[in-house]
Amino acid sequence: MKYFVFILLNFGILNAQVILVVTTPENTPEDARIFMVSSLNGWNPQDPAFELKKSKNGTYELEIPEQAGTAEYKFTSGRWETAEGNTEGKGIENRTFTFTGIPQTLENTILSWAEPEQKKHTASKNVKILSENFPVPQLGTTRKIWIYLPEDYDASKKKYPVIYMHDAQNLFDNLTSFSGEWQVDETMDEFFLEGKKQAIIVGIDNGGSERLNEYSPWKNTKHGGGKGDLYADFLAQTLKPYIDKNYRTASSAKNTGLIGSSMGGLISFYTGLKYPEKFGKLGVFSPSFWFAKEDLTLYLNEYSKSLKKTKIYLLAGRKESDEMVTDIEKAVQLLMGKGICRKNIKTKFDDYGTHSENYWAKEFPESYIWLFSLK
């Protein structure tokens, strides 16, 4: 058995540290690269800043700045497909630990490295790839864009609401997802059969290594960020006009939504605030407000645009970080101080909720129904 010691130094509190002692399976290669993927780094499975470094005595160590609250995490060998697993090689729930400000040692045993799943395409026939290389002039790049068209789109002349969603790799197709898909297409197909109001869903792939940079308008000294303002401009000034021109859309703000999770929740929230005249319905799932908490608070304090017609659905699980629920509640208070009507804000905090695609997939239907006032 090999032992990896992962040391988290709580800077600012003398000698305070969390030591995670990690026991790995016997089949772990000698040259294995072990990463901590967690709520502390936006769930990046191969973040160089969170790679365990091998020391002279054979342990692996990592130092990170002081944190607060509870962290969720897993270990990977650099890809979600090869994250730690259970005795059967299947995925496991997130691990957690809480920063206490005093030294603590936590033992972790990795039972297996999950065997890569033999994935298959699961996207419904109503999902198409709009473009593999859609221009993003604001960021000087291109991006893969997916589109879900309602079952009756071709047979009708109706105009449909539109929802723009981030991390499209995880929305429709299990083959492209890194830890499960939201099953947005299956949900919408089922809603059609139930006679519920339909919507066009536009999914934007994340930028991989640029994800954290593009999903926050503010910089985090440790993790990056700062390009989110340009990404928001892309959504409002480039992508939305294209969709409205080429598809039958109900293009008003009250018929246009943004939904995202984690960092995608942060950028959905910010974009909706920056462009309330374009995006009037926001689904903010497990938002990473921690990434730029002070900047976000300052932005909300100085905010001057009218949000009277904006509807916001804020979701979080109580098994996520300790601060997530309180961060959301603080944001709600600031929003109400800006004139947004309380009935237009829904907060939902689930005791069972974790920071996972599985949780967000379960909650997507309810958020859609509430945002678009369906019964």
Short structural description:
InterPro entries: AB_hydrolase_fold, CBM20, Esterase-like, Ig-like_fold, Ig_E-set, Mycobacterial_A85_antigen. The protein has 375 residues and is an alpha/beta fold.
Describe, in plain words, how this protein is organized in 3D:
The chain is an alpha/beta fold. The chain folds into 2 domains: 2-113, Immunoglobulin-like (Sandwich), CATH 2.60.40; 127-371, Rossmann fold. It has helices at 184-193, 211-214, 228-246, 263-274, 293-302, 322-337, 357-371, and strands spanning 2-9, 17-24, 35-38, 53-54, 60-61, 70-76, 84-85, 95-98, 104-109, 112-113, 127-136, 141-148, 162-165, 200-204, 219-220, 224-225, 256-261, 281-285, 311-317, 345-350. The strands form 6 sheets. An 8-stranded mixed β-sheet has the order 11-12-14-13-17-18-19-20, sandwiched between helices. The longest helix is centred in the middle third of the chain and has 19 residues, at 228-246. It is globular. The relative contact order is 0.11. The model is unreliable at 2-15 (pLDDT under 50).
Write the layout of secondary structure elements.
Elements: E1 2-9, E2 17-24, E3 35-38, E4 53-54, E5 60-61, E6 70-76, E7 84-85, E8 95-98, E9 104-109, E10 112-113, E11 127-136, E12 141-148, E13 162-165, H1 184-193, E14 200-204, H2 211-214, E15 219-220, E16 224-225, H3 228-246, E17 256-261, H4 263-274, E18 281-285, H5 293-302, E19 311-317, H6 322-337, E20 345-350, H7 357-371
Parallel strand pairs: 2-9, 13-14, 13-17, 17-18, 18-19, 19-20
Antiparallel strand pairs: 1-2, 3-6, 4-5, 6-8, 7-10, 11-12, 12-14, 15-16
Helix pairs in contact: 3-4, 5-6
InterPro entries: AB_hydrolase_fold (IPR029058), CBM20 (IPR002044), Esterase-like (IPR000801), Ig-like_fold (IPR013783), Ig_E-set (IPR014756), Mycobacterial_A85_antigen (IPR050583)
Protein name: Alpha/beta hydrolase-fold protein
Domain CBM20: 10-115
